[in-house]
Amino acid sequence: MGKDYYGILGIGKDASQDDIKKAYRRAALKWHPDKNQERRAEAEEKFKDIAEAYDVLSDPEKKSIYDQYGEDGLKGAPGPDSAGSAGMPGGPGGFHYQFSGDPNDMFARFFKDSFNRSSSFGESPFEEMFGMGGMGGMGGMGGMGGMGGSMPGMRAGQGSHASRPAVFDLPCSLEELYNGAAKKMKVKRSSSTLPREAEAVLEVEVKPGWKAGTKVTFQGEGDEIGSSGKAQDVVFIIREKGHPTFTREGSNLLHHRKIPLVDALTGFKVDVSMLDKKERILRVNVTDIVSPNYVKVVKGEGMPSSKPGGSKGDLIITFDIVYPSSLTTEQKEKLKAALPRS
């Protein structure tokens, strides 16, 4: 029996491409050799299988052949229904696949692409969670202060039908999503029969580990619906602000550094300013030779979990190597003498 790529990634055959990407990220992080030093040989084998599974299932052509004929058909052994297919040797239609990629290179490219995104919605994009018509349009909102601050009044019913929730963005910094924060929001609302103030201050307790797309609902704090004595709900949706040194990927933090070639070859230390309230500096020692596909995974230094008893994610550091613009003849000769050619 051939490899079960779906089982390796922990997904079903009906998984979407987005599901496949999330499954790869989850499995690759779990079995990255840096996180499994005590059983590194096993981790390296599983890490390679995970890369191969993702390479196949993320490619529509490979995935289609695998779904029909399995690993044997994909890799050139004719399946029971493929005799004479296209009159060519090998698998169906002469297709012959062999995984020859570098699992580390795939992992590095995957997370570098994530880091380079200009914004992050965590694992639940806004459009996925709140793209339904019943929510109404987004309400307008003024500037916002920091923790414990307040914001100018917003019109509760603005941008939405009175019988639907009034929906507003609530931008939060990565530090606030890491440590938690209290946000006081001033809301203006109309009332016909309800005995209440024309303004209300609503406090949103942002919990450590919350992701972009999380919504907080205050029932009955919006405009009164006609003269019914009932008021619309007010909904705040957590939006993640960009950060100068980190990008969030689910529960993980991505960090990118440029390093000179000499450090890449001889080892170096990376000091990372973390998101803790105490402005903790994390020192990461890199003793490996850093190639363009190198990734350093620091276990348990990512975002906290918003679930009780949940573990923290990881810190994932990727690198760009900066080559010298010029070398003297003497330097070149010393390099030739010092560096192996194979």
Main β-sheet, in a few words?
Answer: 4 strands, mixed
Tally of strands: 12
Mean pLDDT: 81
Q: Helix count?
A: 9
Shape: extended
The computed structural class is alpha/beta
CATH H level of the largest domain: which superfamily? Answer: Urease metallochaperone UreE, N-terminal domain
State the strand order across the main sheet.
7-8-12-11
Cα-atom radius of gyration: 26 Å
CATH class of the largest domain equals Mainly Beta
CATH architecture annotation of the largest domain: Sandwich
Spatial gap, N to C terminus: 38 Å
Helix fraction by DSSP (H/I, runs of at least 4): 25-40%
Protein architecture, described:
GO terms for molecular function: protein-folding chaperone binding; unfolded protein binding. Residues 77-86 have a biased composition (Low complexity). Pfam families: DnaJ (PF00226), DnaJ_C (PF01556). Residues 65-95 are annotated as: Disordered. The chain is α/β, with parallel strands linked by helices and 342 residues long. The protein has helices spanning 5-9, 17-30, 40-57, 60-74, 103-116, 126-130, 174-179, 261-266, 329-338; strands at 154-155, 166-172, 181-188, 199-206, 215-218, 234-240, 247-249, 252-260, 268-273, 281-286, 295-298, 315-322. The protein has 9 helices and 12 strands. The protein has a 4-stranded mixed beta sheet. The chain is extended. The chain starts with a helix and ends with a helix.
